[in-house]
Amino acid sequence: MKKIFAAAAVAATVFASCFSLGAKDRKEVLKVYNWSDYIAEGVIADFEQWYFEQTGEQIEVSYMTFDVNEAMLSKIEKGQEDYDVVCPSDYIIERMLNNNLLLPLDFAALPDSINYIYKYRSPYIEKMFRSINPAIDANNYSVAYMWGTTGILYNSDKVPAEDVATWDVIRNPKYAGKVLMKDAPRDVYGPVLIYLKQKELAEGTVTLQDLMMDSSAESIAAVKEYLLECKKGVCGWEADLGKELMTKERALVSLNWSGDAVWAIEEAAEVGVNLDYTVPEEGSTVWFDGWVIPKYAKNVKAATYFIDFMCRPDIAIRNMDETGYVASNGAWEVLESQIDPEYEPINLSYFFGEEADSVCVNPVLYPDQAVIDRCALEHDWGEKTEDLLSMWQDVKGSKAGASTYIIIGAVILAIVAAVVFSRRSKNGRGKRPARRR
Ligand code: SPD
Asked: Distance from the CA of 264 to the center of ligand 1, in angstroms?
C-alpha cells in the first residue's frame, strides 16, 4: 500500500488546484471533500480524463480532506465551502437528511452503459442504507463508498487473543501507556456502551440497536467514567496515525477501524511485526461512508459522474488495494480480486449473493455473517450530539493520562540536565580534561 505516494499525489492535485482554480469557471471545477488516506494514487486524474471522454467537457478536481466526521459536518452546516461531493459516515448522512442538507441523486441522468451504481450495488449495502433513516430512503441521497467494522488492532506477539476478546483490553493495566484510541467520539462511545451493557444484552433486556440510540445522561456519564479510567493507559487519541504507530510498535492495542487494521497488518508484516484485528465478543458497530451531494453544490453533473466513477469495479479495486478499506461494491470482479487460498473459507452470501457462501478472503476485510450479527449501525442523536461532544472534550482535556506524564517527565529531565550542565560549565568541571603531555 503506497500511502506516501498516494498522499503525494493528492497533495500535488491540491497544490495544482490552488494555483489554477482562480482562473477557472466554477462549472469546470469539482470540489470533493473526502477522508484522508481514502483514495488510490492517480484515481482523481483518471476521473478527469474519463469525464472528458464521456461528456466532452473539461473538469478539474479540487480535492480536500478531513479526519473527523464532526469537523467536516460543522463546515457543511455552516455552509463554509460549496463542496460538490462529500463522504460522511452513516449517522452523519442521517443527520444531513434530517436537516435537509442533501440533494437527491439523479443517476437516471447517466447513460446506461456507464451506470455502475445500480449495476453493482450490494444487496447488503442497499438494506443497511435503507435502515439509516426509516423515514427517508438514504439510497436516494447517498452511494456507499467504503464500509467496515470498529474493533481492536493489536500486536499479536505481545497481546494474547483472550485479552482482545473483550473491549476491556483498552483498560487492561498490562497495556498501560500502549493503548491508542480513535479520536472519533461516536465510534468509541458505541463499543464502550456495548461493553458496559453486556449483561443487559445477554439477558435480552436491551438490543444493540437500542444502545446505538442511547444518548441518555446516565449512559453518557457511565461511558465518561469508564473512559477516564482508560485514559491512564492511553498513549494517544489519533485520527489517522494509529496504524503507523502500531507498525512501529509504539503502541500494542488500538481501538480502530477495520480498514486501518488491514493497512497496518500488511505494512507491519513487511518489517517483521505481527498485528491482528478482532471484533470483541460483546459486539460492535458496523459503519458505512457514503458519497453525498450537499444542497448548495455548484456542479451536480460532475458530482454525479464522480460518484459513478468510484463504483466502477476496477476503480473500487484500486481504492481498496491502496487504502486497506473495503469498497461497498457487490461486483463479482471485486470479490475475485480479493480471493486468496491462504484464508479459511467464509460465508459472504449476505454481501455478494448466494454463490459466495464459501469464499477464501481476508476476514478483516469482509467480516463473516457471525461478526455482522453482533454489530449495529450508529444513528444520529440530533441535539443530544452536543452532550456527547462535551463529554468527549472533558475526557480528552481532563487530568493527565500516560502520554501527558511521559511528555512532562521528558521536559523535567531536559530542564534538570540543562541546569546541571550549566553549573558544571561555570565551575569548569564540565570542561574536557587537559591532555597530559
Ligand atoms: N482514513 C480514512 C478513514 C475513514 C474511516 N471512516 C470510518 C468512519 C466510522 N464512523
From this structure: 14
Ligand 1 pocket, 366 CB below 6 A?
Answer: no
Out of 134-143, 318-327, 423-432, which region has the weakest mean confidence (pLDDT)?
423-432
Atom of ligand 1 nearest to the CA of 37: 1
Ligand 1 neighbourhood includes 276 CB (under 6 angstroms): no
For the chain, the residue count is 437
Q: How confident is the model at residue 417 (pLDDT cuts 50, 70, 90)?
A: low
Asked if 85 and 97 count as a contact pair (C-beta separation under 8 A), the reply is no
Is residue 69 within 8 A of residue 189, CB to CB? The reply is no
pLDDT at 29 over 50: yes
Three-class HEC string of 155-201: ECCCCCHHHHHCHHHHHCHHHCCCEEEECCHHHHHHHHHHHHCHHHH
Residue of 289, 323, 375, 379 best suited for mutating to test ligand 1, as the one with most atoms within 8 Å of CB: 289
145 lines ligand 1 (CB under 6 A): no
Q: Given a cut of 60, is residue 297 above it in pLDDT?
A: yes
Residue 164, classified by CB atoms within 10 Å of its CB into exposed (0-12), middle (13-18) or buried (19+), is buried
Quick one: cell of 149? 467494522
For residue 22, what pLDDT is reported?
55
Between CA 437 and CA 428 the distance in angstroms is: 20
Parallel/antiparallel/unpaired status of strands 142-155 and 326-327:
antiparallel
H or E stretch including 306? helix 300-310
pLDDT digit string, tens, across residues 161-187: 999 999 999 999 999 999 999 999 999
Distance 35 CA to ligand 1 centre (A): 7
**257 CA to middle of ligand 1, Å?**
7
Q: Who's near 172: CB < 8 A, 6+ residues apart? A: 163, 233, 253
Q: What is the pLDDT of residue 413?
A: 53
Atom of ligand 1 nearest to the CA of 240: 1
**pTM for this prediction:** 0.86
> What pLDDT does 81 receive?
87
| The three grid cell numbers given for residue 45, joined into one nine-digit string | 486524474
Give the three cell numbers for residue 63.
Answer: 480535492
Q: Which atom of ligand 1 is nearest to the CA of 184?
A: 10
Amino acid identity, position 244: E
Task: Categorize the per-residue pLDDT at 1 as very low, low, confident or very high, splitting at 50, 70 and 90.
Answer: low
How many beta carbons lie within 10 A of that of residue 354, not counting itself? 7
